[in-house]
Structures are given as structure tokens and as C-alpha cells.
Amino acid sequence: xxxxxxxxxxxxxxxxxxxxxxxxxxxxxxxxxxxxxxxxxxxxxxxxxxxxxxxxxxxxxxxxxxxxxxxxxxxxxxxxxxxxxxxxxxxxxxxxxxxxxxxxxxxxxx
Length: 110
Description:
Keywords: Disulfide bond, Mitochondrion. There is one protein chain. By secondary structure, the protein is mainly α. Helix content is 70%, strand content 0%. The chain has six helices and no strands. Helix 1 (16-34) crosses helix 4 (58-72), helix 1 (16-34) crosses helix 5 and helix 2 (36-49) runs antiparallel to helix 4. The chain is elongated.
């Protein structure tokens, strides 16, 4: 091991499940937030079209797919989500509390 590198500066080795499942999950959630106007337009179209949404909402679906795909293929976006995942992982290792439980509001005393 190179003594000039410390544990905090070394890039951690990601497991298959982290790289191919957990980080892409964060990417999907963030991409949906960033493409919110396309998501809303598609949802509205689907509600209005009902059973015929497959035919009537092709334009909105294509725009949504384009927006999401643009984010999924962006290496900088992957790196951003990877860093967010690694930060959550470090916090879990330090506290033992999963991120979803840490983000809940704590009850106030009476």
C-alpha cells in the first residue's frame, strides 16, 4: 500500500450491487426530480387520456425518456450520485442508522 495515500483520499472499491443497483437507484430518483416538468406533463396526459394513454401520450413519454436518458448517460451525474451514496454509506458506518431513518423528524418532547 502506498503510504502517501490515506484512507480518506483513496477511492473506495465499489461492490457490484453498489455500482449496478444502489447508485443507479439514486440516479433514477434525482433524474426524476430534475425532469419534474416532463414527469408532470406525462402524468397529466395519462390521467386525461385514460385507456388511450399509450397512443395519446407518446410525445410526452418520448420527452420524458429523452430527459431521463440524458441524465443516465452523463458521467458527471453518475459521479455526483456516487459521491452522495458514499457519503450516506460513511454516515451509516459511523452512526449505524440508515439514511432513510436519519432523515425522519425526531419527535419533540412535551
